[in-house]
Every structure is written in C-alpha cells, then in structure tokens.
Amino acid sequence: MDYQFKEIEQKWQQYWAEHRTFRADTTSNKPKYYVLDMFPYPSGAGLHVGHPLGYIASDIFSRYKRLKGFNVLHPMGYDSFGLPAEQYAIQTGQHPAVTTEANVATYRRQLDQIGFSFDWSREVRTSDPAYYKWTQWIFMQLFNSWYNLETNKAEDISTLIEKFNAAGNSEVKAVCDEDTLDFMPSDWANFSEEEKQTELLKYRLTYLKESTVNWCPALGTVLANDEVKDGFSERGGHPVEQKKMMQWSMRISAYAERLLQGLDAIDWPEPIKEMQRNWIGKSVGASVKFSVARGASSGAVPDADRQTQCDIEVFTTRVDTIFGVSFIVLAPEHELVAHLTTDGQRSSVENYIAQTKKKSELDRMADTKTVSGAFTGSYVINPVNQEKVPIWIADYVLAGYGTGAVMGVPSGDQRDWLFATHFNLPIIQILDAQKDIAIEADATKQGKYINSGFINGLSYAEAIAKLNDWLVEEKVGRPKVNYRMRDAIFGRQRYWGEPIPVYFKDGLPYLINEEELPLVLPEIDKYLPTESGEPPLGRATDWTYDNEYEYELSTMPGWAGSSWYWYRYMDAHNNDAFASEEAVAYWKDVDLYIGGAEHATGHLLYSRFWNKFLKDLGHVQEEEPFKKLINQGMIQGRSNFVYRIIDSEGKGTNQFVSYGLRKDFKTSALHVDVNIVENDVLNIEKFKAFRPEFAAAEFILENGRYVCGVEVEKMSKSKFNVVNPDDLIRSYGADTLRMYEMFLGPLEQSKPWNTNGIEGVFKFLRKFWRLFHNEEWAFHVNDSIPSKAELKALHKIIKKVQDDIERFSFNTSVSSFMIAVNELTDLKCKNRQVLEDLVIVLSPYAPHICEELWSLLGNENLSTATYPTFNPEYLAEDTFAYPISVNGKMKMNLDMSLALDENGVRELVLANEQVKGYLEGKEPKKLIFVKGKIVNIVV
RNA sequence: GCUCAGAUGGUGGAACUGGUAGACACGCAGGACUUAAAAUCCUGUGCCCUUUAAAGGCGUGCGGGUUCGAUUCCCGCUCUGAGUACCA
Q1: Calpha distance A472→A23 (Å, rounded)
Q2: Nucleotide closest in space to A938 (CA vs C1')
Q3: Among A104, A171, A181, A195, which residue carries the largest CB count within 10 Å?
Q4: Tell me, what DSSP letter sits at residue A555?
Q5: ipTM
Q6: CA–C1' A814–B47 (A)
Q7: In terms of domains, do A625 and A659 share one?
Q8: Protein A673 CA to nucleic acid B41 C1', in Å?
Q9: Which residue is nearest to nucleotide B5 (CA to C1')?
Q10: Is A365 in the same domain as A425?
Q11: Strands (DSSP E) found in A319-408
C-alpha cells in the first residue's frame, strides 16, 4: 500500500498510549537522562506552529537517548495560572478553571497528534490544588528562613532566634531590611510577641515591603508595566498613578553572588548568561558619606532641622576620583531633597521635580542628550579634603539604584562633565594622564594622581587600596559591592493564582498550619476587585482563618508555579512531599532544557533562586537545576498580501493586481489569509470565498497566476498569518511536520514560518516508504548480504545523525536522510539488515512511519531498540579525487591513492598533462599537500 | 547609546578544526508518462561573456589585512534582528 500516514499515525499513537511506552521508571539501572521543555501557558488560541519547534527537538533528543540506552524522563504539563484566563473570566463570567480546562484539552489533543514521547502519567498543572499545595509549602519555607552570610546559605529562622537570644543582633550577619533595630539579648527577651514578629519579618526570605505599583483607580486594580502605556491603562485608557502598597517580596538579592557565580558552571548559551550577569549587575566600589554643611547659602534662614547632623551616602565605582568631586547629585525622588532645599531654591527645585514627574519613564531614559537639574541651595563637605560642594538634583540619577545619590567628577565621567559644563561647575584634573578635559571627560585609570591630597603620586590600584583603608579608619565609608538586581515582588492583586498561605493577626502576617495546605482558591461571584479596591479575593464570603483572621488577599505571581515544576515531574502524585527524597536523588537535575530566550531574566533566574534555596534546606541535591540549556528561535509569521486597485476617487475597487504588476496601479495592500496561498500564489477560488465582499473580485494576473506580496511579522490572528499545525498534519501527517520544522533551519535561529518546502519532506517520506515496497506497493525486503555501497550509505547516516543530534543540528540530519534514501533508492537496496538499521536511525525524527515499518519487518516496540553502532571500516576509501588548485584556485580533480605521501603525489601531479597545461611551462615555486584534503601548486 | 547574534543563488539553507562554496530541498525551465489533470520519473538551474560547447572572468553585505589557500581568522565600516536602558 502507498504511504497512508493517517492510519499509521493514529495506530501508533494509540499503541504508545495503551502500552504506556514512554513511562519513565525510577528503578531502572540504566543511566538517567532528564529532557525538559518549558511548559506552555494553555491559551485560548491553541497551539501554533511555533510552539512545537522546541518540543520536536526535545522529543528527537529524548527518543535518541532512549535508543542509546538511557532511562529518559521527558514530561509535559501546563503553566495554567495566568492573566488571560482571568481577563476572559471578567468579560464572560466563566470560571477561569473551566476555560483553562478546555484549553488544556485542546493543547493535549494537538500535542498528541504530533506523536511526542511524553510521559503523560507525570503531567502537572500549576493551577491544580494538589500541585500548588507545594508551591505554597515552598513559600512557607521561605517565610521560615533567613540568609546567614557567615554560612552563606539560608537557614531556618529558629537559628536566628537563637542568635538573638544569645547575643542580640549586633553580631548577626544576615541579608535583611535596612531599618532593623539594634538590640541586646535582654531587649529581645523583653520584646512583645508583635515586636519580635515585626523584627523577624525584616530577615525572612519572603517578607512584606512597601513597593510602588501602577494603580488604576478606574479599573480598581494594579497593572503590570506592559498594561500601562504613556500613563494610561492599555485597556480602557484610564489614567494610572503610582501608589505605594505593602507587597510580598522575595529576598532574591541574598542569592545575587551565588546566582552570578553559578553561571560559570552551567552549559548555557553565552548571550543568556550575559543577560543574567547584566541583570544581577554586580559593581565593586565604595560607599562614602558626605556630611551636609551646616548653614545653607544665599542668606536663607536655616531651619532647625537643617542644623542637625545629616549625611548623604553615595556609591561609587571610582572612589579614586574623590578629590575631583565638584558637586553631588541626588535623584529628584531622594528622601532628603525637601529637607535640603533652601527657601531661595525651593521654587526651582519643586518646579524641576514636577517636570520630572510629568516625563514618562521612557522619555526620561531615552533622552540622554539634554542636561537638566536644579540646585538645592545646600552643600556637603567632601570628607577627604573638607571642600564645600553643592548639592544638585537631576533626573539622570535613579532613586532605585545604589543610594540614589552620586558624586559628580566631571574630569573622569562624561555625564558629569556635561552636567558641570552646562551649569558652570568646576572641572578638576585628577590624573596626570588625563588629556583634553576641557573638551571631554577622560575616564582613564592610567598615570599618577594630582590635585588629590594624600593619594598624589599613587597609581590607580594603590589609590583604591589606600582610600578604602582610610574610609574605614575615618568611619566615613567602606568598600562595597553593589548589585543592580532588586528583590522580586511576590504578590498580585488578582484572582487566578496561588493563594498566599498567610493570615493576619494584629496587622502581622502568620503562616497557616502546614497540615492545612493546600489553601484552596475560594469561589467568588465576580473576578473584579471589590468596591473598596481590595483584590478579588476580598469578595470571598466565609473565607477566614480560624473563623477569625483575615487571609492575605493577594495571590502569587505567574512565576511562582514555574519556579520548581521540574521537581514535581520527578514524583508527580506524591501527597507527602513535593517529590520524594528517592525520586530527587535519582533524577537530580535537568540534563537538557529547551525553551525560548524570552525567559532569560524571569523564569530562568527565579528557578535558579528557588533551587538554591531548596538546596540550602537540603530538599534537593544540585546547586543548579538546568545543566544544559538550548534556546529555540522564534518562529515569525509570514504574511501574504493582495493589492487592491484604488480608483481615481481614492476608493477601493473590485480589482486586484498581482504583486509584480502592482507598480502600474495605485493600490492598497490587504492581508490575506496565508492558508489560501500556496508558494505565494493565491488560490483565487478560496479567496472569493474568504469574505463575501471578494465574491465578485477580478484579478490582473502575471503568467496566469496571482502572486501575493510577502512580509515577515509577528504571528497574530489579526494579520491572518497564524499557521495551525492541525491543518498541516491533516494534509501531510505528523512525521512530515516534525521533519519539516527541523528542516527549516538551525534550531536556535529565529525564522519566519513558511510552508514552501514541506512538499519536499513529504516526498522524502514517501520515497523512504517505497524503499520497503515493490512496484505494486507490496511490502518487500530480502535477506541478501548487503553490498559495500549499501553499507557505506548506511554507516554514513548512522554517524552523521549521531554527530548532528549531539550538537543539536537537526536540520542537517534531515538533509542527510534525504541523501541516504536517494542513494539506497539508486542502489535498489531491499536489504533487511540495512533497512532495519535505517529505520532505527530515522525513528527519533519520524517515529510513526518507522514504528510501522519496524513492525512490518517483524519486530516489536521500536523504542526498546538499540541505536546501530557505527563502523568506520565501511567508509574507508582507497583513493580520493584530490582537488588540484593553482595559486589557490581550484582547477581540476585528480584521483590518487590515499596511501601516497607528498613526494608520490607531487610526481603524479606534475606529470599530469592537464596540470602542465595550467602551468603554461612555468616552474612551480611550491607545492602544498594536505593528505586527504587538497593539492595546491604555487607558481 | 551599549551588549549580543547575524548577512552565502530567485527562496530556506549546507560547508563541523582555514583546504573542491552553493550539499539537501523549494521554486523555475524543459522533457517522459497521460485524452487531460494529479501523482511519478528524467534533465537543467549562482552570475557574466560566448550561437553552443570547451575555456574564461566574477562571486559568501562593503573596504582592507594575515595566509600557499579565507564564507571561516584579524582591523574598519554598512545594514538587519534581539536584548537592555542615564548603573554612579
């Protein structure tokens, strides 16, 4: 029979499901290998062709590893909490759980028909209470932990309390809030329960913190940055304001250094590591206190406050330039600004602050050219030389980074230089190697210091060391490492997320009992915030702890459930632990993780954080969760256009002109559904049915066809360029889709989707099928002894595919399969032995057709087969058609024995008549010979 | 602006450590089979010159360099894509 992909694919998908073929087994004595895909959010739009790209690659890898004798864990699940389901619920009143369930069913159906070898018995859904029980449990562990900088790991909060009991907090080295009290053991003992809890909260790894959020009063809700555009909500266009709010936060900053160091040990793409390094943003420098000078300038009456001692702390990476400071700049939002502003400067400072507030964050960042700022009227004393230096405010200083204050050194920093030049502030040269500081700043670290008091004559390294010691000695500063990364906000004022297992008593948060987990999401009448502006959970009735205390009304953010899910797959149905100790000990970590690069600083960073935390507590074994990471490229949409002719009045007509002829007319381009276009040629009949208004359309054709225009855009419904895998599977089958997606190009490269070449892959599979059949489509192989040529073709592909898969070059193996099948077809190979091995080698790519042929060959269960061993002997050659080049230009090929050495080759080459012709009687100066590669004659 | 990735025929791409550029496909052209179409098969297909062939010239974004030899290494530039945002 001809290749009947529909029957074959259905049959084997059913077989795999019934036989639980891909169930991973924790008791196996084979080596383990864990292949993980980033699990999808089940959106209402279903799967598009971009999704499976990574899944196909990981599936090929998993199937290959099974053939290579590994015990492979290859699971799949759903990141099923999220905003779109909630949005939909608000609009329709449908419970998000219901729509999510329906979407999951669609995804499952679509995934199943591609023939993935997932172990579905381990499926997880983050919105399942049996799953989020453990997300909540991890939250509780974080709440009950603090970060000990002495042991450099998280510890149970009880060890902190012991320290408080024994010695108060002066000796405690912890990552904590900045406003901790100083207390002695006796103080601690006398603290009330509330005071103790308040203090402990400042050390807990998850804690409450006042944060600024985008608050939209009209919608009564907090918005993500994405949902705000130019100060207005994207939905509805209502004004959005900044509002301070108590929010749950995760002390990820405690792990900054370990997150940074850990990158060196993992096999990830360098650009992703670089992104994480930048995100963590380590800078080494010093923090220096500048004390505010008493009595401000311009005859202003100093108020009583200003008389009190007050310091401005700055962070700098160039403490060596401190003698060159000619001004200090605070962020306009800095808390001391109002306090420091003199009456004389008040109006201009307030003006400036008002202006800054008006600028959107984007404007403020985009405009690096305009210099702006305002003088506060106050001064600080530079601690190193007692110089009086003016305090300014400017919006280039950010409140959120460092201390929100910088020292201005115009000779060494171009931005400071521009500021000083604009406002006429002094520019002091500090290094003898600095040049042309009248024209621009020179940030050199070369040369010796000048105009720099006690560091005059020193080099950069000497100066830094001396200053750091001096700062500590004089108690005006210290060396400091600063990280850009800030703690992660861990609450959302939404419904469709994990409830936070916390209740409030006397305004303080307490954990619920572990036995009470999961804290199940309560039913509510509407998915909107309450009238008083509380999160949707405020609508729940009879939802209190112990019938008394109010629960936390925020839910966890989207990244909570995805920050540990790979462990759940190890032991998905465990009710007593997130995964059993034995399961974690067996599977350990993810060997290969495939997913999109867009998660570089979100999911991939948070996951590493939670993993390190769980490691500190002894719940998991590895410091890093994902050993190797591969990013698949984004599949873009390829939009097609038709060109409607515009009449003299500017109105669209009924006529459409083909792409090549559109220049002769006035036209407007219209998106046309890519599914009615083939190889950029429009199917006119389908187009007429596309929309009623096109039913009577007329066409100006070129070469008898209507050619469409093309543009690469993001895949989206509104652009009619979404390609759904279902249609392709219907016309070509899953095996063709799988191979075609791989054939498209390198996995990691982003590329537009186009189906132009899919026929070629389909033809290949038919040709492959025909290898096993005779002219009448009857199954036909023989048991003859394989010829040398057949074995050569086979072993070439055995080696090629294994090399390709191991370097994730899937596109090149598809080409090689085509070559192998072409060769074997030409050889009229019907040999059972050869074809059987070929089936195994191809099976990771096209599993259905291979299972069918495998069973026709009389075998059972292809996934338990063994990948054939490559034998280099079959590829060995006696002779080689050496390319002969003259002066580096290839001229001809000459067959010569591979046994020949340079002298033998030289003799043969120079004696050759054709070569003589090329030399035109000239004496060769030199002959380059690379064995098995090339001969080059230099004249 | 900075960082990273990339640029190869009409198209997707191949060439893995510097050694025959354009594998494999798509498309296109021509042919076979067919009443016809589909399917299948065969041939050709980087560009230029040439009636054809042989032969030749030019060719991996642009300009240089290293080398017997460069798509590959180095320097400078242009463009495209992604990320990031005044980080003190």
Answers
A1: 62
A2: B68
A3: A104
A4: B
A5: 0.92
A6: 29
A7: no
A8: 34
A9: A271
A10: yes
A11: 327-330, 374-381, 388-393, 405-408
- Strand B nucleotides within 7 Å of a protein CB: 3-5, 11-16, 19-21, 23-29, 39-41, 56-57, 68-70, 81-88
Q: How far is the CA of A579 from the C1' of B46 (A)?
A: 59
Determine which of A121-130, A426-435, A439-448 has the lowest per-residue pLDDT on average: A439-448
Q: What is the CATH number of the domain that holds A416?
A: 3.90.740.10
* Confidence (pLDDT) at A328: 93
- The mean pLDDT of A355-368, rounded to a whole number, is 60
Nearest nucleotide relative to A394: CA against C1': B86
Residue A35 sits in the same domain as residue A119: yes
- A296 and A382 together in one domain: yes
Nucleotide nearest to A804 (CA to C1'): B16
For the stretch A741-751, pLDDT in tens is 999 889 988 88
- Listed residues A462, A483, A504: the one ending a domain: A483
Q: Write down which residue in A705, A723, A741 finishes a domain.
A: A723
**CA to C1' distance (Å), from A650 to B56:** 55
Are both A433 and A303 inside the same structural domain?
Answer: yes
Judged on CB neighbours under 10 Å (0-12, 13-18, 19+), A537 is buried
Whole-number percent of chain A with pLDDT over 70: 94
pLDDT surpasses 90 at A620: yes
Nucleotide lying nearest to A746, CA to C1' measure: B13
Range of the domain at A615: 5-130+573-632
Strands A590-596, A32-37: pairing is parallel
pLDDT score of A841: 96
Check residues A752 and A162 and name the one with the higher pLDDT.
A162
Torsion, CA A606, CA A607, CA A609, CA A613, rounded to 10: 140
Please give the tally of structural domains in chain A. 5
Could you tell me whether strands A388-393 and A327-330 are parallel, antiparallel, or unpaired per DSSP bridges? parallel
Separation between Cα atoms, residue A418 and residue A660, nearest integer Å: 53
- Residue–nucleotide distance: A445 CA to B74 C1' (Å): 27
**Whose structure tokens read 């490229």?**
A633
Same domain assignment for residues A592 and A673: no
